[in-house]
C-alpha cells in the first residue's frame, strides 16, 4: 500500500513538472481540460474562479517579463561598468597628455564598440599629434558657438544632432553619424561619440555612465598636464 502511494506521488510530481515545462499542453489537448477537476468552489462562482485563475496567470506572466527585462538591463549595466573600469585603469597608466588622449580614443573605440570618437581640447599643445580624432581649439569655448548652450551646463547630451554640430564634431565623417553622445570635459574641452545607428544614442537615455566617462577623462587629462 505504501509503495503504491509513493509511486502515485512520484508520478504526480513527474506529471506536474511536465505540465510546468509545457504550459500549452491543455491547448494542444483541449479534451483533457474537460475531464480535469479545477480547485474552485462549487456553484455559481465557478466562472469567477476561472476568471481569477486566468487573471493571476496573466499577471504572473507580466511579472516574469518585467523581471527578465530587469535582469537584462542589470547585465548590460554590469558590462558597461567593467568597460568604464578598464578605461579608468588604462588612463591611470598614461603619463603624458598624448598617451592619455590616445588611450581615451582607443578604449572607447574598441571596448565600447563606437563608430566615431572625437576629442576636442581647448588651447594649443604642439606635442599632441595631428589626427582625425583630435581637434585643438586654441580659442576655447568661444570658437564653438554651435555648442554655446551645451558648454554652459554639465549634463551630457545624446540623440540626433543638427548637421552643423555633426560637421563641427566629426568633419568628413559627419554623414556617417546618425546619433551621438557629447560630454563636456569641464574647462578642458569636449568628448563626442558617434554611431551610424540612429537608435544607439537617444534623448532621455540614462547619462550616468556618460558622466562617469567624462569625469574620468577630465581627471586623467588634468593629471597628465600636472605631471608634465
UniProtKB/TrEMBL annotation:
Alphabetized InterPro entries for the sequence: DUF484, GAF-like_dom_sf
Taxonomic superkingdom: Bacteria
Coiled coil: 46-80
Keywords: Coiled coil
Pfam family, one: DUF484
Protein name in UniProt: DUF484 family protein
Source organism per UniProt: Rhodanobacter ginsenosidimutans
